[in-house]
Design a protein that fits this description.
This protein has 124 residues and is mainly beta. 0% of the residues lie in helices and 49% in strands. Strands 2, 4, 5, 6, 9, 10 and 11 form a seven-stranded mixed sheet that branches. A four-stranded antiparallel sheet has the order 1-3-8-7, with no helix packed on it. A hairpin with a 6-residue loop joins β4 and β5. The N and C termini lie far apart (40 Å).
Length: 124
């Protein structure tokens, strides 16, 4: 069993920044962030292989968000800059033992683990 705990969500104004963190109880093959707003489908935001350096970003966040990994502490971070109201969602950390290439094909399933989520709210 793997435990994932997110932190760092909150409320900011458009143009502001937030940094999300995900602490994992052990290292898996890949980790990433997904988000979901009520009434919308879950969206992959960013992901990486824990042994680096390949990353994936959704087009909607490229150039604004940066995903990183600290393997010494089994922690993943998502630096979110230039936030927009459309970034408002519950953000979930996910990790998997079986990860496809390229990462944009990753669809978390039976081998995946999820955190409890952290809310990000961006006001205009």
């Amino acid at each position: 069993q793997v435990h994932l705990v997110e932190s760092g969500g909150g409320s900011v104004q458009a143009g502001g920044s937030l940094r999300l963190s995900c602490a994992a109880s052990r290292r898996l093959t890949c980790m990433g962030w997904f988000r979901q707003d009520p009434g919308k489908e879950r969206e992959a935001v960013a992901s990486l292989y824990t042994d680096g350096p390949v990353t994936y970003y959704a087009n909607s966040v490229k150039g604004r968000f940066t995903i990183s990994i600290d393997n010494l502490r089994n922690m993943m971070h998502l630096q979110m800059n230039m936030l927009k109201p459309e970034d408002t969602a519950m953000y979930y950390c996910a990790a998997d033992v079986s990860c496809p290439y390229p990462l944009e094909k990753w669809r978390p399933g039976s081998t995946s683990y999820w955190g409890q989520g952290t809310q990000v709210t961006v006001s205009s």
